[in-house]
Structures are given as structure tokens and as C-alpha cells.
Amino acid sequence: MTSSPPLSLAMIEPEIAGNVGAMLRTAACLEIGVHLVEPCGFAFGDAALRRAGMDYAADALLRRHVDRSAFLGHMDSTGARLILLSTSGAIDLYAVRFMAGDVIAVGSEGSGAPQNIHDAAALRVRIAIKPGLRSLNVSVAAAIALAEARRQLAAPVYGWERPGNAPVYGWERPGKMTGGQ
């Protein structure tokens, strides 16, 4: 893994160790950097990292920030674009054009992202879900957004590379269906 991943995930003050573990595992498997913005809602140290991230935590490119101010200072210094996943986001996930260097942020499980993170975000993005339901689990939402961003950036997948002339989707809109039904 390089020191500068093409995408990063920022966990803003996460509260549940299991969700942190799931996001660390996803990030490690997809070679995505992780910003952990403290404080966490649980004691976070090397032992907690091993428990939460299982054996995947060691493969995660993790950068810890002592608080939101430190994280936002880091974001300012790198010039990376902050994209916030939020149930109140104005932009649908699939309308976003992701770019190398983007940092996709998720807020805490109980209260979401604080106002200063909303204010710092270049884009506030939502994942459409069934009306009347509140939200997806934060680790599931992060995985959906990271997979979409990675797909757009055509990140290599182990075992194969997409040829330069291969279709992006591989699907064609079928004409009128005939027979069978």
C-alpha cells in the first residue's frame, strides 16, 4: 500500500467499536486510507484496534486525529476534497463524480457529523433508501460510497485489470422481451 491512497475514509468521532472494525476491514481490503477522528465512544488503543479490526487492522493505512480541529487542519493542508455522507445530504451518491484524493466522511452513529464537518464538506451526499426508514448502518453506508468511488476511479481489482476498451457497465438495455411470460 502506498502512503497516499487514492481515496480515504474519515470516521468522525465513532461510537461503536464493531462499526469501526467493519470500516477498517473494508478499507484494508479496498486499499483505502482511514482517518480516525477522536474522541471515540470507546477506549481506542492498540488492543481495541486489534479487537475491532480483527486481523485486518494491521493492513489498514490509519491516521489518527486527536479531534475535529486537527482533522480539519490536516484537510486544509492537503487540499483534499471532503465529501460527507449524511441523511440530510442534498446530492445523491450516484450523481457525484469522485476524484483521486477524495476523503469520504461519516459521522458518529448516534448524532451524525457535527456542524463544523458539514460546513467544511465540499459535498454533502445521501444514499437513497426506502422512504420512512431513518438510515443505513454507518459501516454499510461507508462501504457503498467507497465502492462507488472506487468503481468510478477504476481502481484495479486483484486478479484482473479492466482492458482500456472494455465497457464500463457491460449491460445493454434489452428490447421488448419476448416469449416465456
Strand content: 15-25%
Poorly predicted regions:
158-163, 165-181
Topology order in helix (H) and strand (E) letters:
EHEHEHEEEHEH
What is the terminal separation in angstroms?
Answer: 51 Å
Number of strands: 7
**Proportion of residues in helical segments:** 25-40%
| Contiguous helical run count | 5
Strand order, biggest sheet?
Answer: 3-2-1-6-4-7-5
Q: Tell me the overall shape.
A: globular
Structural class: alpha/beta
Mean pLDDT: 83
Instruction: Outline the biggest β-sheet.
Output: 7 strands, parallel
Radius of gyration of CA atoms, rounded to a whole number: 18 Å
Describe the protein in words.
There is one protein chain. With 181 residues, this protein is of the alpha/beta class. The protein is 30% helix and 15% strand. The chain contains five helices and seven strands, in the order βαβαβαβββαβα. β2 (33-37), α2 (46-53) and β3 (62-65) form a beta-alpha-beta unit. α1 (17-30) runs parallel beside α5.
